[in-house]
Amino acid sequence: MKTCTKCGVEKPLDEFTYDKRQKDGRVARCRKCDAARKRDKYATDPAYAQRMREHARVNRRGENLDPVGTARPVNERFDEKWVEDENGCHIWQARINAYGYGEFSVNGSMVLAHRVSYALEYGPIPDGLELHHTCQVRACVRPGHLLAVTEEAHRELHRELHVKRPA
After folding, report:
1. Domains of the chain by range and CATH?
2. Whole-model pTM?
């Protein structure tokens, strides 16, 4: 149990975000109070909001794959985390999110692994395009199985795959 410094309510430890720099390994404010603080910061500081949006956009699109400090190159770390299956897919072996997509840490931010794979092979994902897995395996990070398409084309490709065909 820990008491939030903002609301003053005693809550279980899992209500506080991890922070290895703190003595008890948790931040001082509960998740709810911290989320409210961030919402207020976004609402009152347009420059902060713009910086955070740009940071997220750059990481999502794979435009900032250079390691910070003395970290090993991204492609070296990335290639250790997948194995090829019998269908030629490069199956992600590290962290998988709730939707079945691999996740990879780039400069302290978690990025979808297939986006990193595409960016390493072809460069940043063009604005206005999404990645489609041609193999239909969400954990696949093989660049050749990823196709950059518009949102509408992506929806149409999924519609075609889920249409019941007569036997």
Report:
1. 66-162 (3.90.75.20)
2. 0.61
